[in-house]
Design goal:
This protein is α/β, with parallel strands linked by helices. Helices cover about 20% and strands about 30% of the residues. It has one domain.
Length: about 160
């Protein structure tokens, strides 16, 4: 799952928090999660939406890890996560650059949301809504914008013949 939602707050509370994974992940999945979170906050007056990187919510007991994934087009992404926060990334890199980043912190496990045959050491640990809810927020919350690895690629229509 590229995006997820977690609901905080007991029934009847005046305020609640809706946490949403911002990615990186599938374009449609992240957008759908943001749309669902927006709909939930409209149905719950006083609630607020908090966006967090999905890689911070990987299902693991580790305190720090490398979050990696296939960025398509022959590239990979890397994020260094410690204490529920992204220290660096996500950054797009070649396989060689990715291996160098992993070698810089060899004691950290390598986690991924999907199987990666090019990285046999990577262990699958998809994002978990309960972990997303348990994360301690950074002092400055992230903007509620999807984390895209690349700018959207949009082609312009051809000029119409008159």
């Amino acid at each position: 799952m590229s995006a997820l939602l977690a609901w905080g707050g007991a029934e009847g509370e005046e305020s609640a928090e809706i946490r949403v994974g911002l990615g990186p992940g599938a374009y449609a999945g992240v957008r759908a999660a943001l749309a669902a979170a927006t709909g939930l906050v409209l149905a719950r007056p006083g609630a607020r939406i908090v966006g967090l990187p999905s890689v911070c919510a990987y299902a693991t007991d580790a305190l720090a890890w490398h979050a990696v994934g296939d960025a398509r087009r022959g590239a990979w992404y890397h994020t260094a996560v410690e204490g529920g926060r992204c220290l660096e990334g996500p950054e797009i890199c070649t396989l060689e650059q990715l291996q160098a980043r992993l070698a810089a912190r060899p004691e950290w496990p390598v986690l991924t949301a999907e199987e990666i045959s090019a990285l046999p050491a990577a262990r699958r640990a998809p994002a978990d809504a309960a972990r997303l809810l348990a994360l301690v927020l950074e002092a400055t919350p992230r903007a509620l914008e999807p984390i895209y690895l690349r700018e959207p690629y949009i082609t312009l229509p051809r000029p119409r013949a008159l």
